[in-house]
Amino acid sequence: MKEKTASLCSEKVADIIRNEWPESIGTGGRLRPEQAAGIARNEWPSSPEYAPESKIVDYLLSQRHPEGGPKARFFFGWGFTVEARGVLASALIKQVNENDYANAEEGRHGTKYIVEAPIESPKGATTPVKTIWMIAEGTKHPRLITAYPA
After folding, report:
1. Average pLDDT in the 122-137 region?
2. Separation CA 89–CA 16 (nearest Å)
3. DSSP SS3 for 111
4. What are residue 135's DSSP bridge partners?
5. Nearby residues of 129 by Cβ (< 8 Å), 6 or more positions away
6. pTM score, two decimals?
7. 69 contact partners, CB below 8 Å, separation of at least 6
């Protein structure tokens, strides 16, 4: 079932990128083709500036953060560390570069893109992670908002 859903989602994303919005999809709160134009996979982030160090260190890997604490325990359990914070940033950026987004939602600050796919951990295994990226109004590239177990 997951494979069928992922395939269908990839086909829909490809249609949007090609500016071919199938009427059978409707809008469902998702982007219209004119809004999604130019958001091809090769325009996802490819450098750590889109996964800000402060987001990694002060949120995703901070056991003291009220919302990030449980996420930090999850990532620590898979071998990610504050000292090697670039490893987590790289894994999250690799995830978004290699996978289509599952959903796009417009909000008051911009458009959020949700990606659900495994990331490689320092322990040599993969773990499914959901990441949320945002393209803020007036900007072109997505920025990491959060990441947590999928």
Report:
1. 93
2. 28
3. strand
4. 111
5. 92, 95, 116, 117, 118, 119, 147, 148, 149, 150
6. 0.68
7. 62, 63
- Reported as a single tens digit per residue, the pLDDT across 38-88 is 444 434 544 445 788 999 999 999 999 999 999 999 999 999 999 999 999
16-28 pLDDT tens trace? 333 333 333 333 3
Instruction: Write out the two tokens for 32.
Output: 């219209």
Query: Cα separation of 140 and 1, whole Å?
Result: 33
- Residue 106 · residue 130 · CB < 8 Å: no
Q: Residue 75 class from Cβ within 10 Å (0-12 exposed, 13-18 middle, 19+ buried)? A: buried
Strands 103-106 vs 110-120: parallel, antiparallel or unpaired: antiparallel
* Contacts for 18 with CB less than 8 Å, ≥ 6 apart: none
DSSP annotation of 59 reads I
